[in-house]
Fold:
Amino acid sequence: MTQAAVTRAAVDEHPFLRRALRAGVVNHAAAARFLDVDGDEDAVAAAIRRYSEDLPEFDADARDAHVSMQSGLGPSDDGLLVVAGCGFEPGEGDLTALLASGDVDTQTLASALERLHAADVDPVAAGVAEDTLAVVVERRDGADALRVVENALGAVPV
Structure:
């Protein structure tokens, strides 16, 4: 494999770096040091620069979806969100579900989860199916998570 191909593969292993390259906000020399690709650092930086020129420009789209919040979720075999038989349904629990209905998909979910983690909100569970996105959080995080998910809908990277 050529050094350019190895460099491209190394960039692709770090989605945040690929997105930053698309946005044009990366110092190529610093990225070359970060990736730790074998070879001359200047050559790796040049390969990163050339790769960034080939990538589509960063863009984000707003999604048309309505977000609601449902508190009191607890464990269940079925309910609002089920993964491998572990579900969450309304009842006497101490969890909150954020439900976004409308133009949502896995990219929307990924964007929302990334923003939630950046806001120090650690989701208990999350998923998306058809036109509904669900994120389950601790009750105390519900209001903050609601704002984060609503903001995420405004600019989903494409």
